[in-house]
Amino acid sequence: MQSKKILDAKGLACPMPIVKTRKAIQELRVGEILEVHATDKGSKNDLAAWSKSGGHELVQDTEEDGILKFWIKKG
């Protein structure tokens, strides 16, 4: 998946991954993809709920070697 920007939120605890994601997605245009890398297990539910409530789309999420990766399309 082609992302416009990658946000490294590894090592950050709640609520920082959401705070940084909100700031990063503001820099994108509608339809562009933000890729977020996080290690906080709560990020999975948090980012899914935040995306939905903010009018964005969580396109995909995966986990590789303890790193959660999310692709969020700006709405």
Automatic annotation (TrEMBL):
Keyword list, A-Z: Transferase
Please indicate which superkingdom the organism of origin belongs to.
Bacteria
Q: Which CDD domains match?
A: SirA_YedF_YeeD
The UPF0033 domain sits at: 7-31
A molecular function annotated in GO for this UniProt entry is: transferase activity
Question: Which InterPro entries is this protein grouped with?
Answer: TusA-like, TusA-like_sf
- Family named by the database record: Belongs to the sulfur carrier protein TusA family.
Q: What is this protein called?
A: TusA-related sulfurtransferase
Organism, as annotated: Salirhabdus euzebyi
